[in-house]
Amino acid sequence: MNSWPAVMLPQVSLKNQPLQLVDTFKAQVKLPATRFFSVYVCGITPYDATHLGHAATYLAYDLINRYLTLSHTHFHYTQNITDVDDPLLERANRDQVDWRDLASSQIDLFIEDMSSLRVLPPSDFIKVTDSIELIISFIARLKEKDHVYQIEDDLYFDVAPSLVDLSISEEEAISIFAQRGGDPDRIGKRHRLDPLLWLGNKAGEPGWDSPFGFGRPGWHVECTAIALEFLDREESDCVIDLQGGGEDLIFPHHFMSAALIKAVTDRNFSKFYVHTGMMGYQGEKMSKSKGNLVFVSQLLKDGVDPMIIRWALMIDHYQSYREWSSDLLTRASSDVALVRQALAKSEVYPVAGHLSELIDALSNNLDTPRALSIILKWARQSLDGENSHLLVNESGEMSRALDALLGLTL
User: Which distant-in-sequence residues (6+ apart) come within 8 Å of 305 by Cβ?
Assistant: First the structure.
């Protein structure tokens, strides 16, 4: 489906400074200087509006997108939409609405939120319901390689050969698996961690015809099939360059995706894994199950400037646990007002040194706390009357850099 409109990036020279990120499994890594860089980020399940945890996650990969694009790298970014899943069907049933209408309304709201926050759109924005044939074909390939078995009308993936790559204990994995959509206690499974590939149809639920019977796909195989179809150039031992998402996806979702790819292609899924930290509110991780969500759309309805929201989401580092609060929003509002006051001047403090520091901060694992402090320092220097003899006509240069590098149109 079509994603939201793209925005033009003002050109900013990064002086051939490579982007370094902290990989979940490899510590600090330097992204290679390539003409093409492929990224897959897991998208929303559209049964509720975009909360700030979603926004913070997609903002992080937006910053990577901007940096690599400005480095003259073609950033091929695919994001899925899990528009058929248990939470969506349960919410539609609860609210007595058609599940397709609920999904459509929430996808539209997500697009509006991302556009307002100036998040660059993915190259491919793919609904699971538009990818059923891809997923069926992928499962068929798994069956051909004897990695699939059946319990009643459901198909499971035999994950046991992949467990040598498990970075946590099996006991911990089983506990997490049960909390995040798995069914470790189902009778008949070969291993408690085996994930569902195809769910046989239940009365009243949507389904599709397949060689395995009428039903719908499991969670992990959806992303795997979509990523393989849209991003694999068959040029290396990895299907994609970077897998992204919140840290709650490390296991089981990203582990299972890698295992499925390995089983079908005998190749690794991703060169790099870069995950974002969780967003908290009122002392607990923001989640739908706890009901402690702050929605982007509600903040926008309340008249909050989307650039203030974006600034607030960059005050803390993208891989840290972050706590949302009214104080954070107030701080962001004050910071943005200060920078706007400086940018409104015809003459400002020279920007070259600050831009060099700003690029250095972002190249170092997207150090946005440092980046924002550099911008605020420049704004205060521009507004300090004692610097009047140093001021030059360069506010436009800083404005373009903030837009290009940080997505801030101030």
Answer: 333, 336
Residue 224, CA atoms < 13 Å, CB-side half-sphere: 31
Q: Where are the domains of the chain?
A: 29-281
- b (16+ CB within 10 A) / e for 187-216: eebeebbbbbbbbbeeeeeeebebebbebb
The residue type of 100 is R
pLDDT in tens, 15-71: 889 999 999 998 999 998 889 999 999 999 999 888 999 999 999 999 999 999 999
pLDDT in tens, 224-272: 999 999 999 988 899 999 999 999 999 999 999 999 999 999 999 999 9
Q: What are phi and psi of 99, to 5 degrees?
A: -60, -35
- Helices 255-265 & 132-144, crossing angle to 10 degrees? 60
CB 184 within 8 A of CB 175: no
Residues in the chain: 410
Residue 8: exposure state from Cβ atoms within 10 A (0-12, 13-18, ≥19): exposed
Instruction: Give the bridge partners for 217, in sequence order.
Output: 198
In CATH, what number does 29-281 get? Answer: 3.40.50.620
